[in-house]
Amino acid sequence: MMTETRSVSQGGASCVMELVGISKDYRGMAALKGVSLSLLSGRILCLLGENGAGKSTLIKLITGVERLSGGSILVDAEPVHFDSPRSARQRGISTVYQEVGTLPLMSVARNFVLGAEPTRGRGLARRVDFAEASRIATETMSQLGIRREIDGKQLVGTLSGGERQALAIMRAVYFGARVLVLDEPTAALGIRESALVLELLLRVKEQGVAVLFVTHNAYHAAAVGDQFVVLRRGEVIADFGRDAETVDKIMQLMAGGDELSQFAMLANERLQ
Cystine design at 32: which of 24, 167, 193, 220 (Cβ 3.0–4.6 Å)? Predict the structure, then answer.
């Protein structure tokens, strides 16, 4: 059961989760160094950085896959110690990974309620209520803005990549996610499918969920983000609000200004 909520207010939004100076070492190698950030209800925080910046390590720490080397994690202003992904989920911390967690040969409805299937009957006559599962899945998808009519009986493998990602996100929200962690949800998607997922994130935000959008795509982050934190080599090098920086500046921060300038000069020379 979830503990009583005792959120801290920040500018009209409550702080659901706070990371305070967290660090992670692997055999003397620092993967994260003193990272601090706050996840607020109804806000999207975009965590940006190139490969190796420490984004995946941070996800593992806040979802109970790895243990902290230093610092602390607070949920509703209370220190927590997650010893497994299950303990994180019990506090409302849900994660949707880049490799979508759906089963292609199972129906949309069964995927949606997997592990929490509604049942009917009692005793030996008890069985999964597929009609109720289908109703839950289709109504939730419709409420959160999936325009195409989807039959709960159809196989998930018939959905597009964006729709499968959306299904995983909506399932997490339906089952009570207070913090939704998204690990590169648009990385493998085309433009139209990415737009579907980004639009869904805005709707999830309206539900009061705190969203951590982990990405290396500055354009996708700029489209939906309220707050931006840039990691480089395990450290926070920038933390700013919406409209404080341009997309080009974000890309420079992610890649390192000198390196990006060199590529830009080379590209200009080749185009002349």
Answer: 24
